[in-house]
Amino acid sequence: MTNHAVVIQHHPVETLGGNFTAVLQDAGFGLTTVPVFAGASGFDAPDLAEVDLVVALGGPMSANDDLPALRQEAAYLRAAATGSLGSSPPTPVIGICLGAQLLSRALGGAVAPTGGYQFGLRKIDVTAAGDTDPAFREIGIPLVSTLHGEQFTVPPGATLLAQGTMLRRDGGYVRIPMAFRYGLSYAFQFEPQLTLDELQVWNRELAGDYALMGDRFDPAEEAARNLREFAQFAPHHEAQMARMLRALLTQAGLL
């Protein structure tokens, strides 16, 4: 039987990426993409009884935006992660960036601005729980690709897997959660699906985001640095993130 994954997309260029797509397709998943772009008036996703995995990607909106489509998506993520519809067990959710923030809010957490912005490779500090987690421990090199200006809190009942440090525009630093696990669901305040091909598109289409880092950074220099560094790290990044995704599917009984 073919498994079914729903991929919620919040921006045309922020996609599942070739790496995660290949892992899921090799595992026999059929993929349904649900677009929820800025200004969307509704959320039209398959019934969770027909879904084995939900992947909610990043995007430019805030999880705090009072948009009907985002409210409906958050309810969908909560129903999936908790099995609250009652007709089936929980459906694993992978929340990435905005998707992670929506999952946090859906489970009782909160989302707020960090006071800064990250776009590039950043080190994360993996917790003891993250080191022993069946999926997250596959991130052997704790270096991740980021694109965000907001942060989530770890919701009740969830486990913190990693933290990170953000340089604020005022020159101070803030410590933020970077990943949590809730049951079989995971939230990442980074971009595990990113490939070099996708970053090249982001550097073109999302170039203005580098300016959000603040006047301590030169946008053109940061764009060039990000691409240069990720070009070197991409093979390691894709390999360990593919291992993590396969381990996540295995513990959920989907592989």
Give the helix/strand layout.
Blueprint: E1 3-9, H1 17-26, E2 29-35, E3 53-56, H2 68-82, E4 93-96, H3 98-106, E5 111-123, E6 125-126, H4 128-132, E7 143-152, E8 159-167, E9 173-182, E10 185-188, H5 196-205, H6 219-251
Parallel strand pairs: 1-2, 1-3, 3-4, 4-10
Antiparallel strand pairs: 5-7, 6-8, 8-9, 9-10
Helix pairs in contact: 1-6, 2-3, 5-6
Structural description of this entry:
The protein has about 260 residues and is of the alpha/beta class. The chain has a single domain (about 5-250), classed as 3-Layer(aba) Sandwich (Rossmann fold). It is built from six helices and ten strands; from the N terminus they run βαββαβαββαββββαα. The protein has helices spanning about 15-25, 70-80, 100-105, 130, 195-205, 220-250, and strands at about 5-10, 30-35, 55, 95, 110-125, 125, 145-150, 160-165, 175-180, 185-190. An eight-stranded mixed beta sheet has the order 2-1-3-4-10-9-8-6, sandwiched between helices. The protein has a two-stranded antiparallel sheet with strand order 5-7. A hairpin with a 2-residue loop joins strand 9 (about 175-180) and strand 10. Helix 2 crosses helix 3 (about 100-105). The chain is globular, with a radius of gyration of 17 Å.
